[in-house]
Amino acid sequence: MKxxxxxxxxxxxxxxxxxxxxxxxxxxxxxxxxxxxxxKRPARNVVEECGPVSFSVHCRxxxxxPCVQVCxxxxxxxDPATEIVKHIPEKCVGCWSCVMACPYGIIKRDTxxxxxxxxxxxxxxxxxxxxxxCPNEALLxxxx
Length: 144
Description:
Number of strands: 8
Shape: globular
Structural class: alpha+beta
Helix content: 10-25%
Strand order of the largest sheet: 1-8
Strand content: 15-25%
Order of helices and strands: EHHEEHEEHEEHE
Distance between the termini: 8 Å
Largest sheet: 2 strands, antiparallel
Low-confidence stretches: none
Number of helices: 5
Mean pLDDT: 95
C-alpha cells in the first residue's frame, strides 16, 4: 500500500502541506474561501518542529491500527482491499477514543462538528494534496 513518508532532511517547515490539506478538505477547495469564509477545520497532517529539524506527521495507516480497535461505533475501519484506515463521519459519536489510542497523535478533534478527522490520502486525487504542495519533495507517496 502506498503511504505518505516524510523526509526531514529536506523539510523546511513551511507548512504548505497543512494548508493544502485544509484547502483540499474544504467545501470550496479555494484557499481564500477555505481560510476566510468557511468554518475552520484542523489539518489532517501536522508539521512538527524541533530546532532545525522539521517534518510532517501523517496517519501511518497502521497494519493493526489501535484507533480501529478502540472505536466504539465502527466509525474507523481498515479497508481490507486498500488497507487505508478510513473514518466514516456519519458513524462517529465523538468519544475521542481513537484520539487517545493513536500512538502518533495524528487523529484530530473537530470540535465544531463533534467528530474526529484523520488523513484519508485524498481519495479523489492521484497524489495526496500535501505531497503535491510540498516544494522540496519532503513528502513522498510510495510503497515501502
